[in-house]
Design brief:
mainly alpha, single chain
Length: 144
Amino acid sequence: MSTRRVVQSLVGLVFLIHLLGAAVAQTPPNPPTPQTIKTIFDYKTDLKLTDEQDRHIRQILLDLNRELQLEQAKHTIAVYELQEFIKKEADLDQIRAALDREAAIRAAITYADIAATRKINKVLLPGQLAQWRSIQDAARNHQP
């Protein structure tokens, strides 16, 4: 399969994922189950989040989701191209460049997550932020 065909397929896939993400964002959350990872919204009452804070945080996460979908599609393409270069025993400079592109995309994904977390933290009042961090620490300490 040609690289162009793969790119076209991935662009179509990203579009479908975007539509699905929009539909999921408008679906009311399911009640928590033992396998469900709790989010900040599960602690809305405990944290005393206002409706405005809730809306702002949801928008931050929606924007993050869109960015991550695009970056994941880019990453898939970069990995495919890298594999093709390795398979074809391409010039090492080409392989190095492909590795650098793939690593840069992974770094962009991590950075987007960190930036979104910082934005959410700025939405919270100092007491809410301290309580949220405490909740997160407790959750991390109880995970296997």
